Amino acid sequence: MKQSKSCIIPLLATGAAAQVVKPANFVPGVKWQIDIMASLDITKTLTPTDALVWDLDLYHLQRHPDIITTLRSKIPNVSIICYFNAGLAQPSDCDWDTVWQKPEYKSLLGNSYDPPFSEEKWINIRNTTAIDLLKNRVTTAANLGCDGVDPDNIDGYSADTGFNLNQQDYIKLMTTLATTAHGLKTKRGNTLLIGQKNAPELVSSLNSVLDFAVLEDCKNLRNEADRAFCADFQPYITQNKPVFSIEYPTSLRNKNSPQQCNTSGANSAQYTASCEIDSAVGGKRGNFKFSEILKLRDGADESEHGELNGCTQYCGQGQGKGVVVTPVNEEIDGDECKPVSKSFKLMAREFAA
């Protein structure tokens, strides 16, 4: 089976020019899918087969690395992005018991995240030992066969983490993780890519360092009092780096359907508002060339959270069309984590203040 060609793009990082080799189809507008709520069910047909970028949970893949093999056999030119939590640690992480719950590392964990995710604990990402532990997650992704990483929750500067973290702390973290990622080769011989998740305040510092972005609610359709931030990420598009955007229309949910997915799609008003995409730079929405999809939202209340399961509606095909329900198997999510070959060995060091 043919593999996609690769292209080389210059990257400015820590003041020096570097070369990032990425798949040729990893460009603005590429079709994608994201499912981090449950493991893919590889006993069934994996759709959509024309999505060339898949964003999947790192620890689902560590439990079931055959998901990567199967997905590549079905979509040979696919790029697999591995999602992990960079800002917090949680019991479902494969390194929770082996790392974060060890006595010498427990002090690196601070306050709980907001309900219903209170089991997640903020990480003191200012601490150099904590940064090394997060670098381990990047290396694990490369060793599993991921093509990139999607580090989440890098906006702890606006939360009560218990460590009084600021924007510069997260800029330093992401720059360090980018250096680690760009020093690794994927199993297909490209550079391990790394993206920015939300946190628009950091774009000016990170857009030349990172390789793509993943956004949620950038139009702020549910809370018009908040500032829309899609346009903040246009510097990625200008550099031919994809921006993957998610909107959460409540009408996409049907609680009586598999994965609670309304196969008729979001209603007309929500579909139109969610799927409007600028046709040129400088448009009113700021999302020119974004790869935009619709996913489930728990409810209309602002406190409700999105659900990134297999239910997806693709924009550009018209209201009532473009709905895909990617098969998942939640029953295997709690399986034992498998060891990863060539895993990164954490260097012992003193805790930094």
From TrEMBL:
InterPro entries in alphabetical order: Aldolase_TIM, GH, GH114_TIM-barrel
GO MF term list: alpha-galactosidase activity
Gene3D superfamilies on file: Aldolase class I
Catalyzed chemical reaction(s): Hydrolysis of terminal, non-reducing alpha-D-galactose residues in alpha-D-galactosides, including galactose oligosaccharides, galactomannans and galactolipids
One family name in Pfam for this protein: Glyco_hydro_114
Annotated keywords: Hydrolase, Signal
Enzyme class, spelled out: hydrolase
SUPFAM superfamilies linked to this entry: (Trans)glycosidases (SSF51445)
Segment forming the signal sequence: 1-18
Residues covered by the Glycoside-hydrolase family GH114 TIM-barrel domain: 32-266
EC number(s) per entry: 3.2.1.22
Name of the protein this chain belongs to: alpha-galactosidase
Native species: Rhypophila decipiens
